[in-house]
Description:
The protein has 361 residues and is α+β, with helices and mostly antiparallel strands. 62% of the residues lie in helices and 17% in strands.
Amino acid sequence: MASFKSRLVVYCAILAAAPVVAAVAGAGLDVVLPILGAALLFGAFAMLVWRTAERTIASALSRMATQLEQRIVEVEQERRRTREVTVRFGKALTATHDAELLLRVIVETMVEATGAAGGVVLGPKGELARFGDPDSGSVELELPLTVAGDRFGEVVLTGPGFDEEQAVTAGSLAAQAAIALENVQLHDLVERQALVDPLTGLANRRSLEESLQQEVERAERFGADVCLVLADLDRFKRINDRFGHPTGDRALRLFAQILRREVRDIDCAGRWGGEEFALILPGTGLAGGVALAERIRKRLTERGLHVEGHERIYLTASFGVAAYSESRSLVTLVEDADDALYWAKRDGRDRVAAATDTVRR
Length: 361
């Protein structure tokens, strides 16, 4: 632009000097005046062209500056939105140990952060969560979810296209999601260890007491019944003393296996302590509890343990049964079942005693 302006000044100076040169050379007015007029006309035209070009360029530069400012604002807003999404995502990941809810949060956040049309979380057995319209996009972005060194699954985002920044954002979110899923697994493991007996795999005493409390409250609220069965392996100390504790552990696991197979899904079977076990039977009266205990007693006598160098060991157990409809309180229910178990032991073991039987003694 500066070069054009310089040439214009030079051209105007030459034309302005032309009449002077002509006069010095002795030319008449009939020669000087046309030259002077042409010089003035060209100068005016040149200035008009210059000003028009200057205004046009200034307008174009102004539009470019405005567009650039708008783009800068849009980029900053997009970055701020991405930061906010990431912060919310991090808070959501630490706020829940619910794997199903966590998966929904993961896919929703990744779709929002990348502007994808939709997304799905895929696991080993198929789709686990989805958000948006993942079937409408033409471009897929696949992000693996690796938990504890193993590939848990992947998030598949679909949309019109993904730039480098969106891909990096999605990858960062996927890494955070994998860590959160691993934390959920660890939480579930710790929670399970706190509620499960490690030897038998059944519920432990704490879990049994919590379940019994809940079932008694439900029975009070709805006028239903709940049955408690306490069972004890007979002469268990002799097994440990004669064959060793590993054989005793096998006996406990065998009894636990029989209990697990005989109870319903809504029932709770667990280890009450030592060689003593408990069954919590919702919606079951005294007669139903006695029938189940008798069935389990027979199953146990039919089974046995093979101990190398010895004859097959056959196990027996004694059972005490009580029902909330007869006991009328949580404390009394446990006491009645324990008393019934005591009488089953006293009467010769390998038998089932009901709480109502002990009352008549």
